[in-house]
Amino acid sequence: MSLKSNSVLSSSTVFQSYDAKQTSEQSCLKSQSSGMYGKSIPYSYELMFRPSVTPLDAGCQEWLANKLKSLGFTCHHFEVNGVKNLVAEIGQGERTVAFAGHTDVVPAGPLGKWKTDPFRPQIINDELIGRGAADMKTGLAAMLAATERAFRQQDKLNARFVWLVTSDEEGEAEYGSKAIKAFLDARNINIDYCIVGEPSAKQYTGDAIKVGRRGAISAKVNVFGKQGHVAYPQYADNAIHKMARVINILEAIEWDEGSDDFPGTSLQITHVDSGEFTDNIVPATCAIRFNIRYSHHYSQAELEALVNDKLQCITDDYEITWERACEPYFTPAKPCQCLIGAVERAIHKNTGKFPVLSTAGGTSDGRFFASDNTQVVEVGVPNQTIHQVNERINVSDLVTLEDIYTDLLGELLFSNLD
After folding, report:
1. Domain limits of the chain?
2. How far apart are CA 98 and CA 56, in angstroms?
3. Which of 31, 215, 336, 370 is deepest in the core (most CB within 10 A)?
4. What's the CATH code, domain 25-213+329-414?
5. Dihedral (CA of 67, 406, 194, 196) sign
6. Is 265 exposed, middle or buried, given 0-12, 13-18 or 19+ CB atoms closer than 10 A?
7. Would you please indicate which residues are annotated as catalytic (active-site) residues?
8. Is the pLDDT of residue 36 over 80?
9. Section 288-315 average pLDDT
């Protein structure tokens, strides 16, 4: 039996620090009053104990694959430039449902500021603490526990179900989900519905889900002038002065304001560099870096053309290099066969409330799988402490996610969408 979302965890809950010799079943959090537990808790321990800092996987995918194989999944492992990827599949049918996630985490940061060893997860005051507690090893654990429950509760699988897991979401993301998508394309596997296990909630699991993300792209601009003595500016061409005009014209671009469904586009200057400083020399070069977060009203090519047009209004003496391009995606609600509707029903069943539909936040790997034919929704635990020291979530939020996933899989894999 799983701990349902309306269950109350005892404040006197006793949980020992994870020991590598313990099995996950022995590590279950147990309420002294009820004796109930959710397998997502020990499964989170199994994953969080492994220090899988990008691009390391540290055995997470092998452990997941062994669990999935026991359910009948066929697992494909492949590595690209040190990044480990896992594609696991089972079933057949008219539709393909995918779960996407990542095993890598960001570095722990200053260890002295952690309450616990970041890779020795503990539960303190009903909060699970450790790196990956929110982003997103608990999402993987909840989906694994939910998959086991859904397969045990239902008889006939009438859809294909695939797991898509990488160890390169927190890094450059060049050899992770992008490579997984190429793997799927080569095998003609087309995804209809993709659940991403990223932490999407604000205060509690189910209060918000992500139905899209803005795109992002960074750039470095070098502007060239002519070095000279500050006492004789008529013989020099000050690159900083020229760059100031560049910054002003970039800042003056009128972007879309956004809508209720999608935040607007914005450009932010993130760095300025004119080289080594000397008080009496006019600098010959100046460089800036900037980042654009953009809505689905723009494509990358349109943004690059717009910025180049603006720069050429100031000078021809420049170079621009574009970096870390991430395309936006947006999944609208549909009148039938709607993934958003299925997620809403599962959340309402377990929390009594409907989620806010959001597109806020940074980029996610959902962008690699989204298309006109693929609906993508991110649903996970609260994201308040992601990438922070003492990353943590309430245990009840984890078990609620397991329950939501279980009901969601029941609808997507074993019945027909409305």
Report:
1. 25-213+329-414, 215-326
2. 23
3. 370
4. 3.40.630.10
5. negative
6. buried
7. 104, 169
8. no
9. 93
